[in-house]
Hints:
Radius of gyration: 17 Å
CATH superfamily: Ribonuclease Z/Hydroxyacylglutathione hydrolase-like
Structural class: alpha/beta
Shape: globular
Helix content: 10-25%
Order of helices and strands: EEEEHHEHEEEEEHEHHEHEE
Strand content: 25-35%
Distance between the termini: 5 Å
CATH topology: Metallo-beta-lactamase, Chain A
Largest sheet: 7 strands, mixed
Strand order of the largest sheet: 6-5-4-3-2-1-14
Amino acid sequence: MQLICLGTAGYHPSDTRQTSCYMLPKQGIVLDAGTGLYRVREHVGTPTLDIFLSHAHLDHVIGLTFLFDVARGGSLKRISVHGAESKLAAIRAHLFQTDLFPALPPIQWRPLEPQVVVAGVRISHFPLEHPGGSLGYRLDWPDRSLAYVTDTTARSNSDYIERIRGADLLLHECNFPDTMPEQAEQTGHSCTSAVAGVAAAARVKRLVLTHFDPLNADEDPVGLPTARAIFPQTELAHDGLTIEF
């Protein structure tokens, strides 16, 4: 299975990272629609596109306004955007308010059901602790699984640990290093050791850290050795990274 990281920053894009967007090209599934969504056009090989939103903060949804270009050429027959019903309503009312964006892209809005099957993938969601609310996702195939956790404050007793237990791949936000716990708490994000601790507690097989602070241009913005001391099977995401799992 293949996952492509199209945007790995939080809050706003930087010179090296767009904001949150991840794609399973063979299934036509996209996780979040940040500024990296314009890159979906390079990888589309399916007649349908299913976009699953974690929440409605702009760094995760602004790419929906790029869908005219993603769909240009006519190969896409359907684009569905899945999310919490209240968040989809807010996006339609505000992001696509006609004074801001006068034409609605060809979107089918799909309020989330407890579980949905897309291209043979069973997709479920669960709540996360974040200002305004956020959702994590678990994607299950018959022989493997992927968990996506973004925009939350990781804790040793987080309820979502049970929902990601045993995942083959955990893609988890890590906006700040351990030296910035106050900023993490204030903004509803996570620090390195806490995320690694969650991965260890959930007994996932592999952890990929993402959603980094855009003001930190270091190749290692959160301290990979710190994470690996707790959970050795940890890697860092970057824009353009293709993950085989």
